[in-house]
Amino acid sequence: MTALGYNFGYLDENTKRMIRRALLKAVAVPGHQVPFGAREMPLPYGWGTGGIAVTASVIGAGDRLKVIDQGADDTTNAVSIRRFFAKVAGVETTERTGEATIIQTRHRIPETRLREGQILVYQVPMPEPLFRLEPRVSETKRMHALADYGLMHVKLYEDIARHGHVAMSYNYPVLVGGRYLMSPSPIPAFDNPKMDRMPALQLFGAGREKRIYAVPPYTAVKSLDFEDHPFRPARADAPCALCGSRESYLDEVVVDDKGGRMFVCSDTDYCATRQTQREAAE
Amino acid sequence: MAYVAVKGGERAIEAAHAWLAEERRGDPALPELSLAQIEAQLGLAVDRVMAEGACHDRGLAALAIKQARGDLIEAAFLLRAYRTTLPRFGASLPVETEAMRVRRRISATYKELPGGQVLGPTFDYTHRLLDFALAAEGGVPASAPEAPAGELSMPRVTGLLAQEGLMAPEQPSEAEPRDLTREPLDFPAERPLRLQALARGDEGFLLSLGYSTQRGYGNAHPFVGEIRMGAVMVEFEPPELGFPIDLGEITVTECQMVNQFAGSKTEPPQFTRGYGLVFGQGERKAMTMALVDRALRAAELGEPVEAPAQDQEFVLYHCDNVEATGFVEHLKLPHYVDFQSELEKIRLLRREAGGE
Amino acid sequence: MSGLTPGFADPVPDAQAWFRALLEAMARPGRIQRVAALPQAPAPLAPAAAAVLLTLADAETPVWMDAGPGAEEWLRFHAGCPLVAEPGAAGFLLAAGAMPELAALDAGTEEEPHRSATLILQVAGLETGRGWRLTGPGIGTEHRLSVEGLPGGFLAAWAANGRRFPRGIDLVLCAGDRLAALPRTTRIEGAG
């Protein structure tokens, strides 16, 4: 028991066991959504309950946890979730990507390449990649069973016919292990290639929709595209104003009301590390 | 221009929470609301929070209402988040609403019936005129006259119809119903699972859906067979004892809605039932639950499934206000990474459209 | 009950440590995992196999096992799980003796391949660095795993299991305090 009177990690052991069983099956069938009996958490549905449930079932006293939202450790919801785990699990937290054993994220994959021994936990609002095309779960379940992803291919094709491009810039669907169509969660398409053959284990939790899924390490994750229209992720065409990076994903910051703007790294740890290195070099 | 990333999320959160606590208390010159006052004088709010919070505890519901500053959906969420941490000792036996100590019981299908009609503490037939005497802190009202104890037996109206063979019988089942709080919904959802979801469902959402079935979206022809509200005993049978023990009484409201059914190839024309049961005095919720329950039986009764209220996935996935409010309100969280990717995409598409 | 040996000494952290070992094993097929905290399971239960059951089994998981009444009583007491006689009805199976036929176990459905059984198989020995060449999800290029004490015909049965994907059985191999896992996606080449 923790000081608060709740079990380690907040969840009771029965709930953890149920989630752990779901996680193992999720790893065994990469990209397949495993339903689980999600519980109400002390944070609202839609605010990361699925990711929190996964982290709570995985985390141990020896872990070091990093929580990011929009790539940043200091966004309010990331702060709130990190505080929650510091309170109910008493674990060490960190802002350094390289030092973390578990990274819970909303909407980004860190720029620093993840390694073996790390687990990336995604908070997922809508786990079903087909939900905008077919809202019925009973139907999409059938489509996954048959690997019938024609609807999605038609949608991409229509985008290209109309705009010359796929009109999706985030939550861009991927095919996992050549079999399951999967939502990468609302990360920018820029981050999709990082999922492919990632050495770290990737776990996805959708609390409100009560689904868990996973991508094992070194598993092929391919963004859907066509031979003549290959997948082309975009970032703002500018260097980071703080660290000068031309590789990282950038946030656009409006600096005045006359159209002035600047671009800075969305990944705060990556940017801070580069700035420190640059200062040290000078 | 220098740019400093906004830091101090933690301090901002703490300050916001302090402000919230101050607002919750309001003017400190005024006396603080006690839980007993909320429980006693805002009893219907307490009932609603227990129903949607899926946890019968008047004291905790009152605390949740106080903590939530009267926001009943927030209060239901607080109660749910608490209930999910409680250990599970087992399941009670089904409550016997037929044996209810009735405080209110009405039927719209019969003028007179065994056990009689009991209006009870209802807003019905009150004239909705603001009572300024209450504003002046009206004091203690005169006590209501008490009727002599009537007939003890109050058989259910649907039972009376069933005796004549006019009410479609429900198939009794000893099977353990699936538990919505432990397993996710799965479709087609069995009726026990649907009723669990509806019992926890948002009153406003179900009210509008039930209303829609009356306006032609779902072809309902409902009659209130019976509404009853009162105290029922909750019993629990510990496996090591082998006989049930009384845990205590709770107030519930039950509504049995009688609906016409044209019959099918295998079934003669008869009445069918829509069922609603909620914690506390929650008549509007019980009625609307019964309407929606009946609408959701369309598929099993061989009726066309055309209206929103008949669509299992639509109703059951959207009736839970704790889920709904979380997801709607999560739009307040930062989305600037995705928005940035949309900005880049739209700029690209516009550049190319302009260039052609 | 007086004859029952203890389960986990410290249930919450021990179950967490074993789960992480299992998760790592399933995510990196063929890598051997060990955890210091071992339950005192009655013979013939291997400590690792017993720990896996304590970590995953409870009242909601039907378990099949062939380890005799002592082991059954121990598991029922510590995990509270129902024991079933029919291998096809089990969510978890523990085989200390002959390996049950993979084809006879619950492989889930095309729509719900996660509703499939996990077979915990006790083997005589597990070694990495030699033996089978494993490929598939979770494996960078290849993992090597040598398993002692598998029945003849295992490789053919495993290949048939893989052909049913996404349906299929997942395998946890236990030898003493060591475990390795083979999810249904792992392909095996060469001799064990």
Structure description:
The complex is a heterotrimer of chains A (282), B (356) and C (192). Chain A is of the alpha/beta class. Chain A has helices at residues 13-28, 49-58, 76-88, 137-146, 150-163, 192-195, 268-281, and strands at residues 34-35, 64-69, 92-93, 102-106, 119-123, 174-176, 180-182, 201-206, 211-215, 221-223, 250-254, 261-265. Chain A has a seven-stranded mixed beta sheet. In chain A, strand 6 and strand 7 form a beta hairpin. In chain A, helix 1 (13-28) packs across helix 2. The longest helix of chain A has 16 residues, at 13-28. Chain B has 356 residues and is α+β, with helices and mostly antiparallel strands. Chain B folds into two domains: 2-83, no CATH class; 97-121 and 152-169 and 179-326, no CATH class. Chain B is built from 13 helices and four strands. Chain B has helices at residues 9-25, 35-41, 43-53, 58-67, 72-83, 132-135, 157-163, 191-200, 203-214, 283-296, 312-318, 321-329, 336-355, and strands at residues 101-106, 222-236, 245-261, 270-279. In chain B, a hairpin with an 8-residue loop joins strand 3 and strand 4. In chain B, helix 3 (43-53) packs across helix 5 and helix 9 (203-214) packs across helix 10. Chain B is globular. Residues 1-5 of chain B have low confidence and may be disordered. Chain C has a single domain (11-189), classed as Rossmann fold (3-Layer(aba) Sandwich), CATH 3.40.50. Chain C has four helices and nine strands; from the N terminus they run αβαβαββββαβββ. In chain C, helix 1 (11-27) packs across helix 2 (47-56).
Summarize the structure.
Chain A is α/β, with parallel strands linked by helices and 282 residues long. Chain A has helices at residues 13-28, 49-58, 76-88, 137-146, 150-163, 192-195, 268-281, and strands at 34-35, 64-69, 92-93, 102-106, 119-123, 174-176, 180-182, 201-206, 211-215, 221-223, 250-254, 261-265.
Strand line-up across the major sheet of chain A: 1-9-8-5-4-2-3
| Percent of sequence in beta strands of chain A | 15-25%
Please state the structural category of chain B: alpha+beta
Per DSSP, the total helix count of chain B is 13
Oligomer: heterotrimer
Distance between the termini of chain A: 50 Å
Largest sheet of chain B, in brief, is: 4 strands, antiparallel
| Dominant shape of chain A | globular
